[in-house]
Amino acid sequence: MGGDDKVIFTLSQVSEHNNPKDCWLIIGGKVYDVTKFLEDHPGGDEVLLSATGKDATDDFEDVGHSTSARAMMDEYYVGDIDMETVPAKQKYTPPKQPHYNQDKTSDFIIKLLQFLVPLAILGLAVGIRFYTKST
Ligand code: HEM
């Protein structure tokens, strides 16, 4: 209908192509069939084979591939990846915030208030009752 016949793969579909006779890669949200390129890859076939079955964007970027390397990729493009099927951990790992003592201090204050507030209300009620009785 739309005329846009973009193919979208899931991670498990791409993961099936994980051997020297059939090797697909996920880089920058796109899927590449690099089977024919394995022997010609200047970085060797092993790195490509070890980068299958996951989002290889970081591995690819870490090498600092040249613009001519990036231009070559079009030749192997077979479709896009449904990023919903790629675990978030493999996309980005947000830095973990360490827990400071401050958290424990505010926890303690909350517990103290939970104890003191009802006590204060009770005291107020008794006080009011005492006051209204005596007048
Ligand atoms: C379709 C995908 C890829 C293409 C077209 C490609 C192409 C190339 C090209 C042309 C080079 C030569 C240097 C340059 O021009 O930057 C290269 C080097 C290299 N590539 Fe790739 N590459 C791809 C994917 C990957 C992936 C996923 C990895 C890592 C898992 C990788 C690892 C390397 C390494 C380590 C080198 C350095 C080799 C050296 O300097 O001795 N490549 N690649």
Mind explaining what this structure looks like?
- The chain is α+β, with helices and mostly antiparallel strands.
- The protein folds into two domains: 8-85, Flavocytochrome B2, Chain A, domain 1 (Roll), CATH 3.10.120.10; 101-134.
- Helices cover 46% and strands 14% of the residues.
- The chain is built from six helices and five strands.
- Strands 1-5-4-3-2 form a five-stranded mixed sheet.
- A hairpin with a 2-residue loop joins strand 2 (18-19) and strand 3 (22-27).
- The termini are far apart.
- It binds protoporphyrin IX containing FE.
- The site of protoporphyrin IX containing FE has 21 residues, from strand 3, helix 2, helix 3 and helix 4.
Beta-strand percentage range:
5-15%
Rg value: 30 Å
Tally of helical segments: 6
Instruction: Please give the alpha-carbon distance between the first and last residues.
Output: 86 Å
Main beta sheet: strand number and arrangement? 5 strands, mixed
Overall pLDDT confidence: 89
| Helicity level | 40-55%
Q: Would you state the CATH class of the largest domain?
A: Alpha Beta
Unreliable stretches, pLDDT < 50, 5 or more residues? none
Strand order of the largest sheet: 1-5-4-3-2
What is the CATH topology assignment of the largest domain? Flavocytochrome B2, Chain A, domain 1
Which architecture of the largest domain per CATH?
Roll
Number of domains: 2
CATH homology-level superfamily of the largest domain? Cytochrome b5-like heme/steroid binding domain
- Protein structure class: alpha+beta
Name the helix and strand elements from N-terminus to C-terminus, one letter apiece: EHEEEHHHEHH
Coarse shape: rod-shaped
> How many β strands by DSSP?
5
